[in-house]
Design goal:
The protein is α+β, with helices and mostly antiparallel strands. The protein contains ten helices and 15 strands. Strands 4-6-5-3-7-8-9 form a seven-stranded mixed sheet, sandwiched between helices. A hairpin with a 2-residue loop joins strand 1 and strand 2.
C-alpha cells in the first residue's frame, strides 16, 4: 500500500541491515543474500511460535558443518533439507527444525555456493555441560565462519560470531536502558558462586547458567536474592517457605564427579528442574553464596525501605527495595519482569 501524501514512513529495516552488514563483515561472511538470510533469522527468532507455543531454537549458520561440530563437541547431524540462498529457505529451515530444536538439539544452516543446507545436530544437554552458544562465546577464530543466533528474551536476540564478535538486537519496542537479560543473570551468578570452593566453582556456575537460561525465557517473572553463606534466611525474611535441608548443589556436583554414576547425574538434573520451578514461583527465591538454595516463595515485608520513588509494578518495586539492602544483609538481588526485562545488584 502506498503511503498517503505527506505521511512519514518509519522502519527499522535499514538500521538492522546496516548492523548485520557490519557484523557479517567482521565474520568474513558478508554477501547480499547473507544479510537477508540473517535478517530473516533475527526477526523470526525474536518471538518464534508454532501453534501458539513459544519456541527457543538455537540456530547456527556456518560455511562448513564439520568445524562447527568440532568446536561445540556436536554429533549426530540430521540433514533436513536444502534450498536456494534465500530468506524463504531460512523460513523452511525454521519451520522444519525449530520444533525439534530442544533437549540438546540445535539447528544448523550450512552455506554451499548459492544454496543453503539445513538440519539438526546434538550436544550433551546435561546441566553441567556448557551449551554450544556458551562455547561459541569464547571463540575468537575468524577462519571458522560460524554465527550463533538465539532469542534471549521476548524481542531480544543475540548474535555471536566465531571471530569474537557479538551483537544484541532489540526489536518491537524492547527497552535498551538496562543490561541485556543474560548480562544481569551473569552478574547475579557471580554472587551465587562467590564462596563455592575453587574445585567446584566452574561446574556450579555452569549449572546455574543452564538454570537461568530457562528462567529468562519463562512466562513468569522472577525475584531472587543471595545471602552470605552463614546467614539463616529466617533472620532476613519472616514470610516464606524455608527449607529444613538446603539444596546443596555443590555436594551433588562432588558426588557426580566422584562416581560418574547415573543416580548422581539424575540427582543434579532433577535439582536443576526444581530450582527452575522455584524461581518461577511467586515471591523470592533465596540462595546462599555457597551455591545452596535455602528458600522460595518468600515475601519481603511492605515496610522495606526504598531509596527512590516507586516505579513499575509490584515485582520491580520489591526488587528496588531488595537492591537497597545489598551490602547490608544481602549479597545480591535479581529481577526479571514478565515481559523479559532484567536487572541485578550485587556487592
Amino acid at each position: 500500500m502506498t503511503p498517503e501524501h505527506g505521511a512519514t514512513v518509519l522502519s527499522f529495516h535499514h538500521l538492522l541491515t546496516a548492523a548485520l552488514e557490519e557484523f557479517l563483515e567482521a565474520q568474513q561472511m558478508s554477501s547480499p543474500f547473507m544479510v537477508d538470510a540473517l535478517g530473516e533469522l533475527v526477526v523470526s527468532l525474536s518471538r518464534y511460535r508454532e501453534e501458539g507455543a513459544a519456541l527457543y531454537p538455537l540456530v547456527f549458520v556456518c560455511d562448513d558443518l564439520e568445524p562447527l561440530l568440532r568446536l561445540v563437541d556436536g554429533c549426530d547431524p540430521i540433514p533436513l533439507g536444502d534450498g536456494p540462498a534465500h530468506a524463504d529457505t531460512i523460513r523452511r529451515a525454521l519451520k522444519t527444525g525449530a520444533p525439534l530444536g530442544q533437549a540438546g538439539w540445535s539447528v544448523y544452516v550450512e552455506r554451499h555456493d548459492e544454496r543453503l543446507r539445513f538440519g539438526l545436530f546434538r550436544t550433551d544437554n546435561f546441566v553441567l555441560c556448557e551449551t554450544p552458544l556458551e562455547i561459541l562465546r569464547r571463540a575468537n577464530d575468524p577462519s571458522l565462519r560460524v554465527i550463533g543466533v538465539v532469542q534471549l528474551a521476548d524481542s531480544i536476540v543475540e548474535l555471536r560470531g566465531s571471530a569474537g564478535t557479538s551483537q544484541y538486537i532489540y526489536l518491537s519496542g524492547a527497552r535498551t536502558d538496562g543490561p541485556p537479560p543474560i548480562a544481569a543473570a551473569k552478574e547475579f551468578l557471580r554472587a551465587v558462586v562467590r564462596d563455592v570452593p575453587e574445585a567446584e566453582r566452574t561446574d556450579t556456575l555452569t549449572f546455574y547458567r543452564r538454570v537461568m537460561l530457562d528462567v529468562l525465557r519463562a512466562p513468569h517473572g522472577t525475584l531472587a536474592v543471595v545471602l552470605p553463606k552463614e546467614t539463616d534466611p529466617r533472620d532476613v525474611f519472616s514470610d516464606g517457605l524455608f527449607l529444613a535441608e538446603p539444596i546443596d548443589i555443590v555436594s551433588k556436583i562432588r558426588a557426580y564427579r566422584r562416581e560418574h554414576g547415573e543416580a548422581a547425574r539424575a540427582s543434579i538434573h532433577a535439582a536443576g528442574m526444581v530450582v527452575q520451578s522455584m524461581m518461577a514461583s511467586d515471591g523470592i527465591t533465596v540462595m546462599r553464596s555457597d551455591g545452596a538454595i535455602v528458600g522460595f516463595n518468600v515475601f519481603a515485608s511492605q515496610g522495606e525501605k526504598r531509596t527512590a520513588p516507586a516505579i513499575g509494578g509490584a515485582r520491580r518495586r520489591t526488587f528496588d527495595a531488595l537492591a537497597s539492602r545489598v551490602g547490608s544483609g544481602l549479597d545480591a538481588a535479581f529481577y526479571r519482569s514478565q515481559d523479559g526485562q532484567a536487572d541485578a545488584r550485587r556487592i
